[in-house]
Amino acid sequence: MAWRQLISFNRRALSTPSQLIPGLAGFSSKSTPYVVKVGIPEFLNGVGKGVEAHAEKLESEIGDIQKLLVTRTLKLKKLGIPCKHRKLILKYAHKYRLGLWRPRAEPVKS
């Protein structure tokens, strides 16, 4: 009896749109649009862990956030950014491009 219920539920789940199934209606894999304009200083402050110390250098050399998101590690190395900070910048830049992460709108109070 339980197997029949599971099979019928699975068939219904596959054939019905996700809006009609309770619990799946509120789920969305798309990120919400950005309310705050993100620049290089906001991005680096969001990453944290000492990376924000390089904000001035990156802003003068790279310019805007779109160029930072496609910058490679060799360019960051030539700018004198340490390895751990380069790895953090590249990791969060990749997440930001995919829409999986974004810096907080307001700074974290500690």
What's a quick, concise take on this entry?
Helix content is 51%, strand content 0%.
Order of helices and strands: HHHHHH
Spans where pLDDT lies below 50 across 5 or more residues: none
Provide the structure class. mainly alpha
What average pLDDT do the residues reach? 80
Overall geometry: elongated
Q: Tell me the number of helical segments per DSSP (H or I, 4 or more residues long).
A: 6
Provide the gyration radius in Å: 21 Å
Instruction: Tell me the number of strands.
Output: 0
Main sheet specs: none
Multimeric state: single chain
Percent helix, as a range, is: 40-55%
- The termini sit apart by 56 Å
β content, as a range? Answer: under 5%
Description:
It is a single chain. This protein is mainly alpha-helical and 110 residues long. It is 51% helix and 0% strand. The chain is built from six helices and no strands. The chain is elongated, with a radius of gyration of 21 Å. The termini are far apart.
Task: Give a quick set of tags describing it.
single chain; 110 residues; mainly alpha; 51% helix; 0% strand; elongated
How does the SSE layout of this entry go?
Blueprint: H1 2-15, H2 40-47, H3 55-61, H4 65-69, H5 73-78, H6 83-98
